[in-house]
Amino acid sequence: MTAHTLSVQQLSAGYGDRLILQGLNLDVLPGRVTAIVGANACGKSTLLRAMSRLLAPRGGQVLLDGKAVHRMAPRKLAQVLGLLPQSPVAPEGITVADLVSRGRHPHHGILSRWNRADDEAVAAALEATRTTDLAERAVDELSGGQRQRVWIAMALAQETDLLLLDEPTTFLDIAHQVEVLDLLCDLNQRRGTTIVMVLHDLNLAARYADHLVAMAAGRLHVSGSPDEVLTAANVRAVFGLDSRIIPDPVSGRPMMLPIGRHRMAGA
Amino acid sequence: MTAEAITAGRLRRARYRSRVIWTALVLLAAGFAVTLMLGQSFTPPQDVLRVLAGQEVPGASFTVGQLRLPRAVLAILAGLSFGLGGAAFQIMLRNPLASPDIIGISSGASAAAVFAIVVMGLDGAAVSVFAVVAGLGVAIAIYALSFRGGVAGTRLILVGIGVQAMMQSFISYTLSRAPSWDLQEAIRWLAGSLNGAQLAQAVPVLLSLLVFGGLLVMRTRDLEALRLGDDAASALGTDVGRTRAVVVVAAVGLIAVATAVVGPISFVAFLAGPIAARIVGPNGSALLPAALVGAALVLAGDYAGQFLLPGRYPVGVVTGALGAPYLIYLIIHVNRTGASL
Ligand SMILES: Nc1ncnc2c1ncn2[C@@H]1O[C@H](COP(=O)(O)OP(=O)(O)OP(=O)(O)O)[C@@H](O)[C@H]1O
Ligand SMILES: [Mg+2]
């Protein structure tokens, strides 16, 4: 499999007159797992939108293998780059199998017929997200966590070499969060899929990502290995929160312990 | 689950949907046959066939050839146009209230048509062109008026309802200034009617169905993708902006050309989509079935208005009586349950 390069150069983007991203640079490591962290409303979703062509850049560009994504044919791009949005909408009554099948959309033109490979991709995606048993259920009757796994299955069925996920672990209990992150790492290791995900849990981000990107107010504050990025100074700068960083005894990666105003030992 | 089970589920859904489409086609054909044979008098099928074949049959040539056939053909073509155009809007905007006959686009086309005919003395294709341009103008105006850093569905619908009221009063005003004020004409432009239908009028409607309807049906998959939200649709390779543009132009074209001939037949565009969605369920797109439901509504509504009700009513009055309760129901429930298309 060819490793695709995705690079964001001097990107400015926003809504209406408001610029949210201002001159942001980011090189996604091919074949690696990148996690984006940052405070609410700092522009993480906006960045993923601009990277996947939904939002036209006001300045700068996003390059996939050297070509500007917003000038690529949408379907061609969607065969290589997948995105799980933060709040997708499930049409009323749609079944899980049908929704996951929508992931095959970019692999078909107006006339091409659905084939065996499509069904296999859908079955594999259901299997990987442990939603096989839900296949014939209506999506709007599922729990938030089940629904989230179904959306991830849809993104997996798309079988892209690059996968962007906006908060894939929201609504999931801790066991399912770990399961989803393990699943994404499997995908990364087995198929070499490049993963970029927005995560709110800094500790899980530090544990699972090869490359950690911290955003603040529409800019890239710092990026690098978890050891470089997850420091008390950076947490302070990005979230305005005091913290202590200790080595995670399970993984050896850095682990952040927040310091609030209450329940502090010796305080 | 295995890929076999996925295949089986997919085939089951596709079969269900094509059964719905074929059943609707058969029912429509049967309805068409009945309206040709049975009006105030009965015409035997062999006479109907001879008239259709172009032979001269005393009596039948007039009742079937001049009265019933143009009416039935126009009913079906207009119904297909309204059903398709209405459902396309509802699916694209993810809201059953966002139908062209609720948000003023149909009335806009109607207002343009009545202005072109009554004030400017135009007829034929010129009226259609006028109606399409006005329909697009109204669509753009609604969009611009409801735009505030993005278009929210509810605001668009409220603005549309306001525009609808303006267009209705413009129609009434234009009609009241007409040299020969005629109740039949007034009803056509306010509620829709097939009275005085002629076969030649079917030509523009048929052409618009072939062009605009074809464009819409070819976009079915992209429209379905839009139901997942703009972000997901785009991630699945749908060009959201272009799909929207094509759908608006094609749907407005369908609605406006049909409206320029038969008037804005009340609530057909509004009802067809939800009825089709209810029948098709989660088994696939309701777009094409909505066209067939629209045709059935107009054909049956017109027949009922002529022969089944005490007194004679234009089709728009009959479909209006069907649609109004549903509109009230939706307005009460839409905030609670969200959209259904
Ligand atoms: N469709 C939109 N129209 C206008 N403004 C928007 C839109 N979407 C987001 N914004 C604004 O852009 C800014 C950044 O939003 P964004 O969704 O990128 O934040 P985020 O970092 O993903 O936050 P969160 O962690 O809460 O998901 C916010 O101030 C938000 O209000
Ligand atoms: Mg976000």
Walk me through this protein's architecture.
The complex is a heterodimer of chains A (267) and B (341). Chain A has a single domain, classed as 3-Layer(aba) Sandwich (Rossmann fold). Helix content of chain A is 32%, strand content 27%. Chain A has nine helices and twelve strands. The mean pLDDT of chain A is 89. Chain B has 341 residues and is mainly alpha-helical. Chain B has one domain (3-337): Orthogonal Bundle (ABC transporter involved in vitamin B12 uptake, BtuC). Chain B contains 14 helices and no strands. The two termini of chain B are 29 Å apart. At the A-B interface, α2, β6, α3 and α4 of A face α1, α9 and α10 of B.
Counting structural domains of chain A, the number is 1
Largest sheet of chain A: 6 strands, mixed
Chains forming the largest contact: A-B, 51 and 36 residues
What's the CATH class of chain A, please? Alpha Beta
Shape of chain B: globular
Cα distance spanning the termini of chain A: 55 Å
- What is the makeup of the main sheet of chain B? none
Bound molecules: adenosine-5'-triphosphate, magnesium ion
